[in-house]
Write a structure and sequence with these properties.
InterPro entries: Aldolase_TIM, NMO. By secondary structure, the chain is α/β, with parallel strands linked by helices. It has 14 helices and 11 strands. It has one domain: TIM Barrel, CATH 3.20.20.70. The structure holds flavin mononucleotide.
Length: 369
């Protein structure tokens, strides 16, 4: 699976893997793909440095990237405490009642919520970049919009390509105008924050909108045949997030959650604002049902919802409360039926890609096999 972009980055397969786990990112890179470490959960730059160090040491000298969540517009002088103060008491009560109904214990003394998504705050994301530029990161991706102009310029000064996720051709055009190098066209099926347009419709629209910029197809890709479809639609590679969650190298810190993912079908996810306040695809649980229930108070806008639920999510995960236990994941969860190594996943993707190419060649009457 070679394309102009994969050759430019010096990778064997045009398979890009987003993951919050440095071990998984390193394994994707070692297997010939391009591992991208998600930085949003690192509030302390020292933790990011430790994990980038691990990724770097285990990447066998091959290229890898970093994904940050940096808003394009700067919100001046707003602290986490200011945002906390904006959360209505009624919503706090709703969380308390929901947890009490399910008998979710308090965290132990001294145990803090490990799930604070504050990487969206510009000062946190900038701290992450200060660390990242000390490493030979080859691609910097941004989740929510185009990164600020000075960040794009700084990346380019370091010879780092800048990518941004887009859920519509309009977003993609905006990224192109901002001067980014690669657009990740991420469809409705995808895990995490996602738009309303399916991958099959989105990818060719984005390819056309930003040509000649390279586009990666994302959302609902879990086989080599699906990867081939993405490339057939004009993408220069595929970008996968969900499929790695059940690999042997991924540590979700919960056997119960892994078991839930392995058992889930493609219809068991929902696009809900329950986790962050923006629509994000995740496992459907009694937690998402409660937030999506029109009789309830409904989710708060980002970033309030993320701060409101951070401790609750930690408690649910720590005590593995089955009915509420979830994670962002895409519809491809239906194909994630067994634990495999990252290498086995990449090998399966490349074999499936070859099968698809052979089949298409046969259909086109070009095969002599
Ligand atoms: C658990 C999880 C967390 C994610 N977090 C982020 C994130 O922090 N930043 C980002 O750019 N994309 C994030 N995504 C989206 C992925 O980058 C990717 O676009 C998506 O997973 C592709 O679709 P797929 O889930 O069908 O493979 C996340 C996806 C998952 C499954």
């Amino acid at each position: 699976m070679e394309t102009e972009l994969s050759r430019q980055l010096g990778i064997e397969h045009a398979i890009f893997g987003f993951t919050p786990f440095p071990e998984v990112a390193a394994a994707i890179t070692r297997a010939g793909g391009f591992g991208v470490l998600g930085a949003v959960r690192y509030t302390d730059p020292d933790d990011l440095e430790r994990d980038l160090d691990l990724l770097h040491r285990h990447a066998d000298g091959k290229p890898y990237g970093l994904d940050v969540v940096m808003p394009a517009k700067k919100v001046e002088g707003v602290t986490e405490a200011d945002v906390e103060a904006m959360i209505p008491e009624g919503h706090r009560g709703f969380v308390r009642d929901l947890l009490a109904r399910h008998g979710v214990p308090e965290l132990a003394e001294g145990e803090t919520s490990g799930w604070r998504i504050t990487g969206w705050m510009e000062e946190v994301a900038r701290g992450q970049l200060d660390v990242a530029f000390d490493y030979p990161v080859k691609l910097l991706a941004n989740a929510l919009g185009s990164p600020p102009a000075d960040v794009i310029a700084r990346a380019h000064d370091h010879g780092v390509l800048v990518a941004a996720l887009a859920g519509s051709a309009r977003h993609a055009r905006h990224h192109a105008e901002a001067g980014i190098d690669v657009v990740v066209a991420q469809g409705y099926e995808a895990g995490g924050h996602t738009g309303e347009i399916g991958t099959m419709v989105l990818v060719p629209e984005v390819v056309e909108a930003v040509a000649p910029l390279p586009v990666l197809a994302a959302g609902g890709i879990g086989s080599g045949e699906q990867a081939a479809a993405g490339l057939a639609l004009g993408a220069q590679g595929v970008w996968l997030g969900s499929l790695w969650l059940t690999t042997e190298e991924a540590d979700l810190h919960s056997e119960a959650l892994t078991a839930k993912l392995l058992a889930a079908g493609s219809g068991d996810t929902v696009r809900s604002r329950a986790l962050t306040g923006k629509p994000a695809r995740q496992l459907r649980t009694e937690w998402t049902d409660a937030w999506d229930d029109p009789a309830g108070p409904g989710a708060l806008p980002m970033p309030l919802q993320g701060l409101l639920v951070a401790e609750a999510v930690s408690r649910i995960q720590t005590y593995e409360v089955g009915a509420l236990l979830g994670t962002p994941v895409g519809q491809i969860v239906g194909r994630m039926t067994g634990r495999r190594s990252v290498r086995a996943v990449v090998d399966d993707l490349t074999r499936g890609f070859e099968r698809a190419v052979t089949r298409m060649n046969r259909i086109a009457g070009r095969s002599d096999t």
